[in-house]
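Running co-folding for shikimate-3-phosphate.
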Amino acid sequence: MQRIFLIGFMGAGKTTVGKELSALMNCSFVDLDQYIEQRYRKTIREIFAEKGETFFRDIEQKMLREVAEFEDVVISTGGGTPCYHHNMSYMNEKGTTVYLKVSNRELVRRISRNQSTRPVLKDFTGDELTQFVEETIAKRSEFYEQAHVIFEMEAKDIASDTSTLYACLKDRKPTS
Ligand code: S3P
């Protein structure tokens, strides 16, 4: 049985890699944010706006515990998921965790193109966004780096990164 958790900052490519990896592994794919949106029938942005971040972190924890029961699955998590409610140690127990590591510069480039769906980014622009990414990664790294596999993304070619990751995961023992 395989259960892979993809973790990493916003813009790391967790959803794109997750979809491609799940196809290569012949597993199903779950995106935790989409799972939450379907369950609560609201976008992540609406949940933050109406109920606040503490509420979001509570339901994120709850939904993570639901999807972590699925088998033969690749799960892409939200950028903050590993950093709240002991989620990182929980995921490490339930499956194989993979940190998709991307340079801060590339993260800023990617998320500035897709900022409006991500409430934690507020309306930061230019240097503010760079500063936010640097400071937040500095705080979150201690969680991200607990992953079983730390995978440095090349940033240019997600498909080739995914096949390298697939080759590296194939040599690992299945979850149980
Ligand atoms: C968040 C990342 C988002 C989403 C929410 C909070 C974060 O997921 O869970 O907006 O705190 O980094 P993505 O990493 O998929 O954008």
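Result summary
The longest helix spans residues 126-144.
Residues 45 and 51 are 10 Å apart (CA to CA).
Job closed.
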